[in-house]
Batch of 2 targets.
Target 1
Amino acid sequence: MNINNKLNGVFKSCLLLCALLVLGGCTTVGKANKLQEKGQYVESVKIITDKLDQSGTLPSQSTFNSMSNIIYRSIQHFENKLSMASEKNYDERINAYEGIFNIRVLLENKFYSNHFANFIASYKLPELRSTLAQLHYLKGNEINPVQIIDYKIKSDIYKAGLKYAEYKDMRTLMEKYAKQYATLAAEDGYKKGVDAAKMKDYFQASEHFAQVINVYKAYGDYKDSKKLFTQYDRQWRTESAQKAFDEAQSIAQNARYKADNREAAQKYTEAFEYYKPYGDFKNASSFASKQKDLGTVYIDFYIDGHKRDGTKTERDLKSIINPAFKQTFNSSYYQQATRNTRKDLTIRVRYSVKYHINKDKVREYKQQETGSDGKVRYFTKVVKEKRNRYEIDVTVTAAGKVSYQDGFKLHSTSSEEQIRYTGDVPSGYKAHTNGRMESEYTLERQIENEVQSRIKDILLNIRDHTDYI
């Protein structure tokens, strides 16, 4: 008996495995078809080869036939493109050959390669590489540079061809036009940088010289571009930092409120960031830290909740109140007060909840109905009504350097009618229920987003008042 049970278990496991393989194959075929519909032919083949490689075995004959059809449709798509492209339409021919090449790579040395033997024999990888290299070579030769960028385009085409194979003097041409592009682009950028410096646009001048350095870096330094970049970069940064520093000093000297100190801190930080590549501008970071401390509001925050009868609530609402506080006072200029810090403000959120289940109401309605047989039936409709209600009363207060108080009340309800019939009840009248009685937890959840939103609005008003302390 035990041996039979084990055999049954193995048999069931095999059936399950086979079912999963079939299901997986069908899913893969569906995804591959969708990719083909989008024009992603190589991707449609890849999703199939990935699945086969992963499974290590062929799926059912019908599934594999579907997979093979998708692969051959993709091959046919690129062969059709190739046959329709003119001899000098290099873009179309390259695109078609690249599609065939990529599919050919996906089918190379796989346990299922013999199923695509004709395709594999027709397209040898070395020949495909050579053809693609040649097409890139011819395409590059067709370009006669007019604008500076044309030299880069020409060089990039040769470079793309070299990914497949070395061909004639393609590497030499790639390097030649790459350097020509770098030289011409550097010369152009250098001139623009000089012109911008003459106009005292030192930021733009530094940008141009930075581009010169970047475009020519493979060949060393282009003239004195590095020296000029540093000169004009430092110059515009110094001017910008000095302007922000002067503004910060003026705001700090005339500060009346914490908000003024925060603004001064931001300006000192701007000055620091402008000049950062060359150091700390006139100790701006220290000034920023000092003004930030003067502008920081230290807050004590408390939450107190209970039921109207004095007992604890079924659910602690801190999980929705705390996020409202953190989202409102999310700047580093607002900190939780500690024993070692001064306290500017105390904010308290007090809430009380009441959950009430009404006493059931039962109503009876005498009814009569004459049937098709002429008989009058007398019966009673009995309606039992159930109702409950969840209420929350919230008060938010601020004390200290800001005095503020606001609050709100919200509620949610649910009801249910249980309907039944007694007496000589005609056919078609069945007991049923309208509505549904929700739990206290569910009623609270129905209004928690509104509770959080209302609390956040009040906290935003309090935050606005902190600009004047």
Target 2
Amino acid sequence: MKKQRSSKLAPKVKRKAGNPATKATKTRASNRSAAKVKRKTRKPNRLVAVAPYNHGDPSLQTGADGLTVWTLQKMAQGKQFNELDDLFNKGLTMDALPVGLAAGTGVPLLDFSSLIPKALNYLTINSRYFKIDSKQLVHDALEYIVGRNWRGKVFFPSNNRSVSEGRNRIKESLTLPRSPIVPMARFDTMLLDSDPLAVDTTSNVVVLNYAHPQTRPYWLELILTKIQCYDVQVAVRGKYGPIFLGKTWLGTYDEDGQFTAFDPGQLIARYFLDFNDGAIKEQREEHWDGSDEEFVDPMPYVEN
């Protein structure tokens, strides 16, 4: 598989004029998607020389007893991390980024003793009207990113099948329980042969860079400019088709959008995504709280 290199051109998004939810913006340069880590030099595993899978390949659909984002969430809640890591490290090499709406579940993995104090050094949100409990703010942010108020992600189609952008499906309000689900928390995404935060993987990986998460003046997006995260995900076989296992790290972005993890060995969350129609249907019928949802319509097309 030809290794994907960062593009020097910032992808542009075409959107219908007049719709604030899909207002045209320039995306950030895709070379901001690679993470930097402070760790001892270690060679990543080489990719196995096999043809990459297409997302529609029927062999990736395992049927009734296969994995779903909900069974994977239960594994994470049960601290079956060795089994999850084994799946992550032996993932599938895919031929393109996923596209469209994804049902998602996640589990925050908070470590207030080590990582959170480092994050608080970068958290400077001031208000004349109220005081902010910084630790509670970090906790609430992670709950909204991968917890009870998060429903998944959406990946936009692109003329480059390995470079695009997307949004998270998150409740609009941090305080109103029945507020609608809206697309927010923007990310740049790339399909790469490897990533230094995932040296044990034998497949290619999808990385999500949150150096520039803001789309509208959402409070959560402001928080994400201070509490900075980075995702790496891999595909495995699932009940409805390919399903993605993701890991999230806490760290900082530099001026060029390069990410440095506070601790490469410490995750702050695990999450799971399924872009297949069957998963979206199951989410709506069996795992929904009645909230309305706003969609990016029409779906933007990212040009690189």
